[in-house]
Structures are given as structure tokens and as C-alpha cells.
Amino acid sequence: MNLICICCDTFRADIIGPGRKLSFVQTPNLDQLLRESIVFDRAYGEAQATIQMRLAFFTGHRTFPYNDNPGNRGLMAQSLGWHRIPDSRVTLAEVLFEAGFVTGFVTDVFHMFKPNMNFTRGFMHWDFIRGQEADPVHCGPLEAANLRGHVFDEAEDLPLHTVLRQYLIGIQDRRTELDYFTPRVFNGAIRFLEDNYRRPPFFLWIDSFAPHEFWDPPRYFADRYYDNPAARDLILPQIANRPHPAKTEADLERTKALYYGYVTFVDKWIGVLLSKLEEMRLWDDTIVMFLSDHGTELMDNGVFSKNIHGPRNYNHQIPWLIRMPGRAYAGTHIEPFVLSHDVFATILDLLGVEPPEPVQGRSVWPLVTGAETDLHGDTIITGWTRRACVRDREWAYIIDTIQPQAQPLLFHTAEDPYETTDVAADHPTIVNDRRRRLEDFLGGPLPYTYAHQPDHRNIMTLARHLQIRRQLGLPL
After folding, report:
1. Residue 139: its pLDDT value, please?
2. What number of other Cβ atoms are within 10 A of residue 99's Cβ?
3. Whole-number CA gyration radius for the chain
4. Contact predicate 262/280, CB 8 Å
5. pLDDT score for 396
6. pLDDT by residue (tens digit) across 20-65?
7. Is the pLDDT confidence value at 111 over 60?
8. Checking DSSP bridges between strand 395-400 and strand 2-8, what pairing results, if any?
9. What distance in Å separates the CA atoms of residue 387 and residue 401, rounded to the nearest whole number?
10. CA 374, 379, 383, 384 torsion: positive or negative?
11. What is the DSSP string of 238-249?
């Protein structure tokens, strides 16, 4: 049996399928995949955001509460749980390689290839498509970074603008749709299939950074959701969060449309890949899995971004689909909580491979067959860098675990699924109970000190470069 996992960064769980908040976003290929798949309705990240999730995916161990502390000098971003795979951990690709699988990895997730990172361990083939976000694939010319239409005031020199400049410099050679990152990722995956379909079994991990910001699809994908020539294309949506007299409602609607269009663009290229499976007659012996690492906020609570509000449901929940050969169990919906570190054990279980050592995650397959009815109980405890969440089917308790005297948030998710109204003051008993559960999980009182201490030294970015040139009095 072969297995292909498609992971899309920043893909909200409330898009695919009917009756969801964002079901109007056009994803015909993923909608079809959902109809043919097992669907996990309460899948969450045990630690988020990007790198924390991939640590769990690739090792089967929890990242939160950040008990590992490998060296990470030169690594950015600097946040709890954001580091290389610890040398003591065996990776999913290493296990499958030793079991005789051809292991492939195609991605444009820049963070997995920063200094000191080692996410290629165990992959016979890996293809890194460069240039996403602040990847310094080019450091000039600076005039290639034309901010016009992407910011409110080009005279402003904000830290966000240096990140935007780096991205624009990186895409200066882009000409056609095929030059965008998403088709390059999925065409790279198709190349792997063409190279290896005659010698199964294979394991292919496809990790698309889209629809993570920058929200920069070909503009005709965004135009189908909102097309207003007066609106700016704020492809870095956090820029829209800043107060500015020139900001309009049209700018905000266009920013949402950029995300929606990026999702539809990704869906198109997932469809190209799935059509290739049909063409190569691989459906009969290939499992296809679709995942994300987290969602993002689309003005659900007044801003764009994810880190401002951390583990609220629109960020915290992830899609997880498993399409089996012959569409076995298609349409099955799994209600119990499942977590990101369960992916490792699930893949090995589906492929009939024994893990070489115990892992913390558990295979979700017994939930599908009915052999088990639950994996993690009625309550899950998760982390989003310094914030933690204690979540059950009725309540979500969120608190900054480091800040002294941090004020908790409590949401009655049974009535407020998008977690807009904090009711902590009205339910002190529940707040105290959830705090106790979190402290028991951490093994100490709040505020808490973690073993992992991020290191900010040696940050080689365009923002830092411009800062140094100003300090030296050199031209920009």
C-alpha cells in the first residue's frame, strides 16, 4: 500500500464540505475527496503553529509542553517549541524507509529548511521550492520590491514592510501561473509519482505553504470573490490590522478574497494531482490523506492573523481526511477528539509498519473500525506557543502561561462556536477547574517556565540587514 499525505498550511477546517461557515469558498476537488473519505470532525493541533505541528506529525510525540530544547542559534521565528527535530526522535520517514518504502518530500515551507533544521531526515528524495515568505532566495535588487498597492503608505517603514520586500524580491522572476509556488509544489509531487510508481510501496509527504500568507494567488482567483479596482491587494494581511486613515471596507473585503482565492487556487492544483492518480491507476493501492496545521482569522474577531488570538477554534481546529482504496468507509464521520501527534501512529498502522519505539500519539484507525470509541477523553490540553487551551465539547479555556497575573479567557463553545464572547467572569468555578487541570498537565503552577528557551542570535533577514545599513549610514 502507498500513502500520500497532502498538508496545506493555514487551511481552515470550516471550508470543505456543506454547511460550514466558509463553504461558499470553491473547493470542488477537496469536496469530492471529503465525500470519498473518512472525516475527523474534532481534529486539533496539540501544539501550534507551523513547526510545532510538523514536529508532532513527523515524530508522533507531543511538542507541548516544550520539554525538548535542541540548539537553535540562527533560527527564526523564536517561539516556544519552534526548533529542529530532536536527535533522539525517530522520524516517520526514517521508519518507513527502513520498512522498504520509497520516501519522498515536496514542499515550499521555508521554515522547515532554516538554519539547524533537519526535517528531511529519512527522505530518499526531497524537493524544496524556495522563495516563500521571508526566504532569502534573493537579497536584491531592492527596486524589485514594489510595494505599490500592497501597503497603505509607501513612505512608512514598518517591520512588516521589510518582510513584504523580501517576498517581492523573491518572486521577481514570476511570469505565469506555473511559476507560482503551488503548481511548482504539486508538479514536483507528480514528478515523484512518475519516477516511482513502478516500484511501490512509496510514501509521499506534500507540504504546501499555501494558503499561508502571503495571500498572493493569481488575481483572477481572488476576483471571483471580490473585485474592486479601488481596493488594495494587501497580500500580507497583518498590514490591514493597523489603523490607517486610508483603510476602507473594500480593502478588508479584498483581503478576505485574497485568502478565499488562494484556497481555490490550492484546490485546483490538488485536483491536478488527484487526476494524475486516476491517470496512473494508483487509486486501488494508495491511501490519500489531507491535513492542515492550523487555520487563520478572517476578521472573525476583528483582525486578520492567527497569533493574536492563538488557539481559538478557527485557528485551532484542523481538517483531517483519509481516503482509502475502494473508498472504504467513505462518509464516516469520527466524533471523538484526535490530535496532530496521532498522525504518525495512524500512518504506520494503515501501512502495517510497527513503530520501533513507543510514541505518545495513537492510531485513529480503531475509531473508524469501531474497535475503540475514544482516544483522548472528553478534554484535550493544547498549546499555541505561550498560550494554552483546555478544551472540551462545551468550553474552551485559554490563558497565557508565561505572563504573570495573566487573565484567562473562557468561551462557551456549545453556544459560541467562534469564541467571540469571553464569559470567564461569569463562571469562576469552571475557570478554576481548567486552570487546575492545566497546571496538573504542566507539572507546576502558572506562570510556567518551559525547558525550551528560544535563541534569537544571528538572525539573517532583510529586516536586520536594512537596520544594520541604517546604523552604519550606508545607502539602502
Report:
1. 86
2. 16
3. 22
4. no
5. 98
6. 999 999 999 999 999 999 999 999 999 999 999 999 999 999 999 9
7. yes
8. unpaired
9. 6
10. positive
11. GGGGS--TT--H
Q: How many residues does the chain have?
A: 476
Using alpha carbons, select from 353, 283, 272 the residue that is nearest to residue 28.
272
pLDDT tens digits along 152-175: 976 666 777 888 999 999 999 999
C-alpha–C-alpha distance, residues 213 and 193, integer Å: 28
* CATH superfamily for domain 2-378: Alkaline Phosphatase, subunit A (3.40.720.10)
Per DSSP, the three-state class of 388 is strand
Q: Give domain limits for the chain.
A: 2-378
Q: From CA 283, how far away is CA 327, in angstroms rounded?
A: 9
The reply to whether omega before 211 is within 30° of 0 (cis) is: yes
pLDDT digit string, tens, across residues 253-274? 999 999 999 999 999 999 999 9
Residue type at 160? L
Q: Could you tell me which residues come within 8 angstroms of residue 295 by beta carbon, excluding any fewer than 6 positions away?
A: 10, 11, 12, 13, 14, 306, 314, 315, 316, 317, 318
pLDDT one-digit tens code per residue, 378-432: 999 999 999 999 999 999 999 999 999 999 999 999 999 989 999 999 999 999 9
Quickly list DSSP for 8-77.
Answer: ETT--TTSSSTTSTTTTS--HHHHHHHHTSEEETTEE-SEESHHHHHHHHHHSS--TT-------TT-SS
76: pLDDT strictly greater than 80? no
Q: How confident is the model at residue 469 (pLDDT cuts 50, 70, 90)?
A: confident
Return the axis-axis angle of helices 159-170 and 462-472, rounded to nearest 10°. 120
- What does the longest C-alpha to C-alpha distance in the chain come to? 69
Q: Please state, in angstroms and rounded to a whole number, the distance separating the CA atoms of residues 102 and 4.
A: 12
Distance between CA atoms of 414 and 396, rounded to whole angstroms?
10
SS3 category, 323 = strand
Q: What does the DSSP 8-state code read for residue 252?
A: H
Are the C-beta atoms of residues 383 and 389 closer than 8 Å to each other? yes
CB atoms within 10 A of CB 140: 11
User: CB under 8 Å to 247, separation ≥6 — which residues?
Assistant: 152, 240
**How confident is the model at residue 159, as a pLDDT?**
72
Q: Is the pLDDT at 467 greater than 90, yes or no?
A: no
* Residue 461 reports pLDDT greater than 70: no
